[in-house]
Design goal:
Rossmann fold; 2 domains; six-stranded parallel sheet; 29% helix; globular; disordered C terminus; binds NADPH dihydro-nicotinamide-adenine-dinucleotide phosphate
Length: 341
């Protein structure tokens, strides 16, 4: 029997049990590519899955983790060969399909994106689904026609993972960014990422008016609920908000006023089932459009055994920026050896 280490979620009478376990390779699911996982990350959804706070997991036992980067070990898919460096975000990993917090993963080759030239597998997971989603949101705002001359943008949940990357990416594109945070102590951090202005979360959690003062040309919202409703009421004529998160709630207590009186657009951002061409574009853009110094500033490295505690912290809004999870145990297992030292 050949086993590998994995974070396994099992169902029990009281709910679920999560532990670092030895997983039998024979129990991996069908797939045409086997990957030696080097790095993963902790996203908000991973927090929901591991704490059981939301019904993310649909199959038991489950290996948690929605994101991985690593090296192809074997493949019967003509597109991939042993030694290829790959990224996988979403596609049901850690939900319906055995996931990323494991030394090995067997997946469908169609789900994979090639690691951009010059990007390490560690950087790819420091970015992770959170960062890839932030780039999808930035691209959506650009496609809407927003440019730095259109006016400032707002990013909510700014000190979180999606928020931190969104601040860094949008400021690099030349936008003036207002960062909204519930953690004013992170103001200097957000300024180092490029934010021009910091506002307290509570400025966006008051009673929602159909229309407020026109403050921003657009925004990236990771919070949802009253926060998104307030943001919409303050968007300038013909602006747009890319909505990608629900950290504050799934509801949206808004009116049609911003849409029919100011022509505001609400752009929905999904990263999980995104077609491959969009994924490749986002990853290509992340290679050049996200300063590595800023990525390092927002990233904290943890080990596989630390993931369970990190999951609790992320759903409580205590994680700043991004967590990258070191999966490979031996230095020789890393394609990017310098990062493993
Ligand atoms: P993080 O926990 O890293 O960031 C979320 C941030 O939201 C927190 O850091 C905090 O920022 C803020 N926040 C947390 N709780 C509340 C609250 N109750 N009210 C208002 N603000 C709150 O998570 P991620 O960045 O990984 O994910 C952010 C959201 O985006 C999640 O809802 C996630 O599910 C979603 N997401 C969606 C994707 C998609 O495909 N659409 C892909 C990736 C993520 P601060 O302290 O600065 O206020």
């Amino acid at each position: 029997m050949s086993t590998f280490k994995a974070i396994v979620i099992e169902k029990n009478d009281g709910g679920q049990n999560v532990r670092l376990a030895d997983f039998d390779e024979a129990n991996l699911m069908d797939g045409d590519v086997t990957i030696r996982v080097e790095w993963s990350t902790v996203n908000y959804k991973d927090g929901l899955a591991i704490t059981g706070k939301a019904p993310v997991v649909r199959r038991w036992p489950m290996i948690a983790g929605v994101d991985l980067a690593g090296t192809v070990e074997s493949s019967s898919n003509p597109e991939w060969k042993p030694g290829d460096k790959v990224i996988l975000n979403g596609w049901g990993l850690g939900e319906t399909y055995l996931g990323a917090y494991a030394e090995k993963a067997r997946v469908k080759g169609d789900w994979l994106v090639r690691l951009p030239q010059g990007m390490s597998t560690r950087d790819a997971m420091a970015i992770g689904t959170a960062g890839y989603t932030a780039m999808l949101a930035a691209i959506a705002l650009e496609r809407h026609g927003l440019q730095p001359t259109s006016g400032p943008l707002v990013v909510t949940g700014a000190a979180g993972g999606v928020g931190s990357v969104a601040v860094a990416v949008l400021t690099k594109l030349g936008f003036a960014v207002t960062a909204s945070t519930g953690r004013p102590q992170e103001a200097d951090y957000l300024k180092r990422l490029g934010a021009a202005e910091i506002i307290e979360r509570k400025e966006l959690t008051g009673q929602v008016r159909p229309l407020g003062k026109e403050r921003w040309a657009g925004g990236v919202d990771t919070v949802g609920s009253i926060t998104l409703a307030n943001v919409l009421s303050m968007i300038r004529y013909r602006g747009a908000v890319a909505a990608c998160g629900l950290a504050g709630g799934m509801d949206l207590p808004t009116t049609v006023a911003p849409f029919i009186l100011r022509g505001v657009s609400l752009l929905g951002i999904d990263s999980v089932s995104r077609p491959r061409a969009d994924r490749e574009e986002a990853w290509r853009r992340l290679q050049s459009g996200l300063d590595r110094a800023k990525l390092a500033e927002m990233t904290t490295e943890i080990g596989l055994a630390d993931v369970i505690e990190a999951a609790r912290q992320i759903v409580e809004g205590q994680v700043r920026g991004r967590l990258v999870v070191r999966i490979a145990r031996r230095r020789s297992d890393f394609s990017d050896k310098a990062a493993a030292i």
